[in-house]
Specification:
Blueprint: H1 36-40, H2 43-57, H3 61-74, H4 79-91, H5 95-108, H6 113-125, H7 129-142, H8 147-160, H9 163-176, H10 181-193, H11 197-210, H12 215-227, H13 231-244, H14 249-262, H15 268-280, H16 289-293, H17 299-313, H18 317-324, E1 336-342, H19 349-360, E2 366-372, H20 380-388, E3 391-394, H21 400-409, E4 414-417, H22 427-431, E5 437-440, E6 455-458, E7 474-477, E8 508-511, H23 520-532, E9 537-541, H24 547-557, E10 565-568, H25 573-580, E11 585-587, H26 596-603, E12 608-611, H27 620-628, E13 634-635, H28 638-650, H29 652-665, H30 674-694, E14 700-702
Parallel strand pairs: 1-2, 1-4, 2-3, 4-5, 5-6, 6-7, 7-14, 8-9, 8-11, 9-10, 11-12, 12-13
Helix pairs in contact: 2-3, 3-4, 4-5, 5-6, 6-7, 6-8, 7-8, 8-9, 8-10, 9-10, 10-11, 10-12, 11-12, 12-13, 12-14, 13-14, 19-20, 19-30, 23-28, 28-29
């Protein structure tokens, strides 16, 4: 569900964090033991070792472990027995023991490349990336043609964020072993992260050609195809992954995601039940946190998803943090250095919302830096963002620790993460703690579940005090809406309805959110509204080429003429805002409500009827409406939502009155007052810094409104 490069008529919310699977380095088990160990020790020891290796290779780990221990009882320094007992310990996830045994083996036989490779595997499992990289480098130095060690070195470099070097080592592995399917899969992962989609597709396809049952490669290919908007093929790839590995829950989850983008809802209820079971099962693999935001889960369930992401996916970062040893002072600052961290400094909803705020920051009190690790689309919006900052730094080529070190060297006081767990996100950078105060803001409407993110910027509507425990961050409460808006956005000329394929005299309902936000339950309500408002039509965004036919079919199933659904192509923002004025009433999605699409509608004077829940994402539209001074458009149940939309549609005077109120309020409301918003945001930063200086521990910090 990616936003259009034109940034037009698209949802504000970014797609999921893609956790492409990297094939974990495999422990090396020799087929024949020979060399110094056999020469140095009696023949009986050599015979016992060969018997132990045979058991190990046959998968009889308990038997092999007992035999290795017998050898070590006779010869404690035996390098091969220490080495291979260490492999078994690692296979059984006893990594501390494995580390001790492998270290002992290397002390006895320092030139054994297999031992260095396996030491690297254990260090990688422990999250000690620097040491793992050193071990793998030593393995390939001792044996340059060692394909597996090159692949494993690539994995460690990938985890470090050093993509160029990772790719180099995957290619070296393939040069030595051309049919190395795991190396092709991993090469695809690194190319994907760099945005080289066609090359990534080719690498995954080659991995599958070599190994047709390779479930992980099918999964990764599906993610890449989904990113490219090739949803039909992505769905097929996820299905193939599940067929080849029946317990592949991640593939099932992403299959659910892509079917929602396609608006194929036959399995929606079963998917939701499976996700809820995964949330309850703490032993389960991680759920994509962004995926969870758009499902009817509780705030507590979303918090569990995010916290598990941290525990499972980001654990390797902690050893890096210890090595970097960043330290900070708590003194007062005449000028606070604010760093904004994002992949979306381009034609993207986040930059559309934030650009004017960056321009209006008070340079007497704040120094503003932007750290960009996303693509450079050479758009006017990227240029505008760069010009609005005192420093604009492109860190795409930096590894995670190099990026964190640069931010630290720049003496950033408050690092503002605009990504969370959205597409291209690099939470590893904030996990390294390069700034004393770190903030979750704007791009991700939920908790990060991480101890290194100190604050989340909110408002009284999006995070009520009663739900504070569902957020790992402390909550900084702005007096108005948490969402900034750019009041300089031009609204294009409004074409006549015929040019938009709309009937001239019909009442036009609209929703321009991405299709993954549309749930069967809300579509039921929309069709009920159309049924009770004769002649009305529903105007939707054509997010992809498959969804219109599927939604028309769903409408027909509910007894609504499919022609009453009209689909709008994506347009540049100015033109989109101009055509939006042809709508009479926006009807919102739930539980992921309108964010930028909501403020777009209100900016053009179109009313928005929303429903509010308990999660951040389900309360954003309510925040916008309350700040604009029209809280009467916020409902708290399906029935109230239907009744309000029906009443406004069937009572022209009430609809005209609410439009007039919005038109009047939008010129004076805090929602579109960028000066007021920026001053309040700056007060929030000063409040955070003062709280950090004094060691405050309050869960909620309220910002006094600027006048």
């Amino acid at each position: 569900a990616s936003a259009s490069p034109a940034g037009a008529g698209t949802a504000a919310e970014q797609p999921h964090l893609r956790y492409i699977e990297t094939t974990v380095g495999r422990h090396t088990l020799p087929t024949l033991v020979s060399g110094p160990a056999d020469v140095a020790h009696p023949a009986s020891t050599s015979t016992a070792l060969k018997k132990a290796v045979a058991s190990h290779q046959a998968g009889r780990l308990t038997e092999a472990e007992a035999l290795y221990r017998q050898i070590l009882a006779a010869v404690p320094e035996h390098p091969d027995a220490n080495h291979l007992l260490g492999v078994i310990a690692a296979q059984r996830h006893r990594n501390a023991e494995a580390l001790e045994l492998l270290t002992r083996a290397i002390a006895a036989s320092p030139t054994n490349p297999l031992c260095h490779n396996n030491l690297g595997n254990v260090l990688l499992a422990l999250g000690r990336l620097d040491e793992a990289i050193a071990a793998f480098r030593r393995a390939v130095q001792l044996q340059p043609e060692y394909a597996e060690a090159h692949n494993n070195l690539g994995i460690a470099l990938f985890e470090q964020g050093n993509l160029d070097q990772a790719i180099l080592n995957y290619r070296r592995a393939l040069a030595q072993q051309p049919r190395y399917s795991a190396a092709y899969n991993n090469l695809g992962n690194a190319l994907y992260r760099q945005g080289h989609m066609s090359e990534a597709n080719a690498a995954y396809a080659e991995a599958i050609r070599i190994r047709p049952d390779y479930a992980e490669a099918y999964f990764n290919l599906g993610v890449a195809l989904q990113e490219q908007g090739r949803f039909d093929r992505a769905r097929a790839a996820f299905t193939y992954a599940r067929e080849r590995r029946s317990d592949y829950v991640e593939a099932r989850n992403f299959e659910c995601v892509v079917t929602r983008q396609l608006c194929l809802w036959d399995g929606f209820d079963s998917c939701l039940s499976e996700v809820r079971e995964q949330v309850r099962d703490t032993s389960h693999a991680t759920l994509d946190p962004f995926f969870c935001l758009s499902l009817p889960l509780t705030a507590a369930e979303q918090h569990r998803c995010a916290a598990r992401q941290v525990a499972v996916k980001l654990a390797p970062v902690f050893s890096q943090r210890n090595r970097l040893k960043f330290s900070f002072t708590r003194g007062p600052r005449q000028v606070l250095r604010i760093g904004y961290l994002s992949a979306d400094f381009r034609q993207h909803a986040t930059s559309c919302l934030l650009a004017e705020v960056l321009e209006k920051h008070d340079r007497r009190r704040f120094c503003i830096a932007a750290y960009s690790y996303g693509p450079d689309d050479r758009s006017p919006l990227r240029d505008r963002v760069a010009s609005a900052c005192d420093h604009f730094v492109d860190i795409r080529e930096h590894s995670h620790d190099a990026a964190a070190s640069l931010i630290y060297q720049d003496k950033v006081d408050i690092l503002v993460d605009l990504m969370g767990y959205t597409r291209y996100a690099r939470p590893q950078i904030t996990a390294l703690r390069p700034a004393p105060v770190q903030v979750n803001y704007l791009g991700y409407p939920g908790t990060c579940g991480a101890e290194w993110v100190d604050y989340i910027i909110a408002d009284p509507n999006v995070i009520p005090r009663a739900l504070g425990d569902c957020y790992s961050e402390r909550v900084v409460v702005l007096p108005d809406s948490y969402q900034p808006n750019d009041r300089t956005r031009p609204i294009g000329c409004t074409p006549d309805r015929r040019a938009c394929d709309l009937p001239e005299s019909a009442l036009v309902f609209c929703n321009f959110n991405q299709t993954y936000k549309i749930t069967p339950a809300m579509f039921d309500v929309w069709m009920r509204i159309l049924r009770t408002v004769p002649g009305s039509v529903l105007w939707l965004l054509e997010s992809n080429r498959w969804a219109p036919d599927n939604l028309r079919r769903e409408a027909a199933v509910r007894g609504i003429d499919a022609d009453r659904l009209i689909f709008a192509p994506k347009l540049p923002m100015e033109a989109h805002l101009g055509r939006l004025r042809n709508a009479d009433l926006c009807i919102d999605t739930f539980p992921y409500t309108s964010h930028t699409t909501g403020s777009d509608a209100l900016w053009t004077g179109v009313p928005l009827v929303t429903m509010t829940g308990e999660t951040f994402a389900s309360r954003v539209a309510a925040s916008l409406l309350c700040t604009l001074g029209v809280p009467e458009l916020v409902t708290d149940s399906i029935d109230a939502y239907f009744n309000l939309a029906w009443t406004l549609a069937r009572t022209p005077d009430k609809l005209t009155a609410i439009k007039s109120k919005i038109e009047s309020n939008r010129r004076t409301s805090p929602l579109f007052d960028s000066d007021r918003y920026t001053r309040n945001l700056e007060s929030a930063y000063e409040t955070m810094w003062e709280n950090y200086r004094l060691g405050g521990s309050d869960k909620f910090l309220s910002v006094k409104p600027w006048h």
